[in-house]
Amino acid sequence: MDTLFIEGLKENNINKLLSVPKSDLHNHSTKGCRREWLCEKLNVDIPRPPQHLDGLDGMQNWFRSSIKPFCDGYENMILRWEGAFAEAKRNNIVRLVMNFGTAEVDQVGTVEEFKELIEGFHKSYCPDCVFEAELTFPSCCNVDEEADKIDKYLDADYFKAIDICAGENVQPFEAFKPLYRKAEKYHLTKKMHVGETGSAEDVRKAVEILGLSEVHHGIGASTSKETMRFLADNHIQVNVCPSSNVMLGFAKSYAMHPIRILVENGVKVTINTDDLLIFDSSVENEYLKLYQAGTLSAEQLDEIRCVGLGT
Ligand SMILES: [Zn+2]
Predict the structure, then answer these.
(1) For the chain, what percent of residues have pLDDT higher than 90?
(2) How far apart are the first and last CA of the chain?
(3) How far is the CA of 28 from the centre of ligand 1 (A)?
(4) Which CATH architecture has domain 3-309?
(5) How far is the centre of ligand 1, averaged over its atoms, from the C-alpha of 27 (Å)?
(6) Global pTM?
């Protein structure tokens, strides 16, 4: 327990919240920097997002129309990665997992070159932060093709986790088995975006079929006591992103956010940013939003913070 963190929540004291060690375990690297940081670096004025972005399509449209024009191209992708580590430093993120697509890695060059670039930012901004790179594939990918090519990314022993993102129920869970079998061979942590829009049944199936140990989002599980018991009994970690859910319309409000039900049912949850550049809410603010909405108590939020640290 950290009294400084609890005080920070109760006193609305951002500096106290920033100073306490935290984690961010669900972070899409190219959108992982702060809007203000990027505006300052590029001397541009990227607009704040509207309160509601209308689902994943609405989010992509906003990103394409209102953010990307300010920071498009290879050099700016690198800058956004740098910004994600700058944010880890500013926010005292001591455990950081960021995901990368294979196309992003390829733009840099070999996996060794990619690793050198990313580790350069890691070492210069937050060397004490435990950083893990996660390899993510879009749910519409050609699984067999990707599974054939995956060794090239995993041989370097840099990626520690696998993930599927960008929309649910695009292919049956079984279809992803070739990728997860490869992931197992390399001892990766197996994760997937599921239960953001999908059902409790989807969450359970994904965990069972693909052998996940972590679920990104997973809020759909909150509608089933049985699924929550299954997640709790199997110690499956659910990496929740409150602002993302509220802004995209997958949770009614912060006060009504399903994280409360997950916590009350013993599910192991963490609190994360998802796409900081889009949702404009950094980790300390995610905790604060849930506290101020009365969703969870300061003590419960501090316990979640500790789960994220792995303590
Ligand atoms: Zn995500």
Answers:
(1) 99
(2) 10
(3) 6
(4) Alpha-Beta Barrel (3.20)
(5) 7
(6) 0.98
